[in-house]
Design goal:
It is a single chain. The longest helix is centred in the last third of the chain and has 19 residues. The strands form six sheets. Strands 1, 2, 3, 4, 5, 6 and 17 form a seven-stranded mixed beta sheet that branches. Helix 1 packs across helix 7. The chain folds into three domains: 189 residues, FAD/NAD(P)-binding domain (3-Layer(bba) Sandwich); 133 residues, FAD/NAD(P)-binding domain (3-Layer(bba) Sandwich), CATH 3.50.50.60; 92 residues, Sandwich (Immunoglobulin-like). It is of the alpha/beta class and 418 residues long. The chain contains eight helices and 25 strands. The model has no long low-confidence stretch (mean pLDDT 96).
């Protein structure tokens, strides 16, 4: 089977990329989705707060995804559900599997990777103790409660202050559970400030920084956890241990981009984001394979996922039509002095329409700073921020004319005291 464009993943990233590719003249599009429905993780996110940037209004997750599903159907974009992609190679040959048809192969003119991310589990944390039931990732609990109709527990401790954990603290409270506390090993939250205010403060749920779980108790069902304060090296401080009775421990300790397929295709992976290294068109290091959304780096807002996916869809369309420049002038981006990473990592100014939106995360909480962009030691752009934190992704737009006038092949993004 041959297709012009194949998109791996039917969540918000894949749907937006498909719509934008169609809007740019590509009609032969196939979306491959492993779930039984389109929409991805947004299907279980029944809270509002989505769509403020894209639609100018607050939507729930299902409402947001439904707008793109509707567009996909209106444009007659083909999709296959319950389809697992097993492999992609560097020639863009895809091997996939469905229960009905078995294994099949597709030769694609271009591919967009939109597989999203997965949660870190208890196995990644090495918490001592027994292995009772009642220990779940926050996302798994969210699916059980919101989609399957199961109440996962009555006395809850949440480890990690990621956004899903914060949202589930409120959700479990509204369902009648007692959320005893949220623990965060870092001295700052890894979630959005608005979620701390709306999900913890509004419901009097305590948040303890520099704390973690050091032991798990219970045989068949979780009976309690031992929590302790940690030092600056994140090591438990002896004498600060405290036993907390609970029947449920929810883990909200980070997300990992799903890049097994990317690695199989020989795509260069960033050691910081754990996602593909991409350029201004969201093209990876393998020609004709693009990536967008949480498979590239973990986002706070689905609106930013959509914006990034529009770029991937448009870039894939240009590649198929032979309109992407292969100019040798490539500018690399680098974060330093407080900036952990910058996406995209490579820029070809010839392929930039108007500007490039650079996304980045900082490594700590900083107040009253400039995000400074430097080339050959000279300031290209400087933007003031009253506060930046790891839980909130920052973004800066740089115009094409500025990028075209950069002679050096590197842009440095750095923090500077205001």
């Amino acid at each position: 089977m041959k297709r012009e464009l194949v998109i791996i993943g039917g969540g918000p990233a894949g749907l937006a990329a498909a719509v934008e590719a169609h809007n740019n003249g590509i009609n032969d599009i196939l979306i491959l989705e492993r779930d039984k429905n389109l929409g991805g993780i947004l299907q279980q996110c029944i809270h509002n707060g989505f769509g403020l940037h894209i639609f100018g209004e607050q939507l729930t997750g299902p409402e947001y995804s439904e707008r793109f599903i509707k567009k996909v159907n209106e444009l007659n974009i083909e999709y296959m559900l319950d389809t697992m992609v097993l492999n992609i190679d560097s020639s863009r040959k895809i091997t996939a599997l469905t229960p009905k048809t078995g294994v099949f192969e597709i030769e694609a003119g271009a591919v967009v990777l939109a597989m999203g991310c997965r949660e870190r589990t208890r196995g990644a944390l090495n918490i001592p103790g027994s292995r009772p039931s009642g220990i779940l990732t926050a996302g798994a609990a969210q699916r059980f409660v919101n989609m399957e109709g199961y109440m996962v527990g009555k006395k809850v401790v949440i480890l990690g202050s990621g956004d899903i954990g914060l949202i589930m603290a409120r959700r479990m409270t509204l369902e009648g559970a007692e959320v005893k506390m949220v623990l965060e090993i870092m001295p700052y939250s890894t979630g959005l400030k608005r979620n701390i205010a709306q999900c913890l403060v509004d419901y009097d749920i305590p948040l303890y920084f520099n704390h973690t779980v050091v032991n798990i108790h219970g045989k068949n069902r979780l009976e309690g956890v031992t929590v302790a304060e940690v030092d600056e090296y994140r090591k438990p401080i002896a004498g600060t241990e405290k036993y907390v009775e609970c029947d449920t421990l929810l883990l909200s300790v980070g997300l990992i981009p799903e890049n097994e397929l990317s690695k199989g295709a020989g795509i260069e992976i960033s050691g910081i984001t754990s996602g593909p290294v991409v350029d201004e068109s969201m093209q990876t290091s393998v020609e004709g394979i693009f990536a967008c959304g949480n498979v590239v780096h973990v986002h706070d807002l689905v609106d930013f996922v959509t914006q990034e996916s529009y770029l991937a869809g448009k870039g894939a369309a240009k590649f198929i039509k032979g309109e992407l420049s292969k100019s040798k002038k490539v500018i690399s981006t680098l974060g330093e002095n407080g900036i952990r990473y910058v996406v995209p990592q490579k820029i070809n100014p010839d392929n930039v329409d108007d500007s490039v939106n650079f996304f980045m995360r900082v490594d700590n909480v900083y107040k009253n700073v400039f995000i400074e962009v430097l080339s050959e030691g000279k300031t290209v752009l400087k933007v003031k921020r009253p506060v930046v934190s790891p839980g909130e992704m920052e973004n800066i737009k740089i115009k094409r004319e500025i990028l075209e006038n950069i002679n050096f092949n590197k842009l440095i993004f750095s923090l500077k005291e205001a």
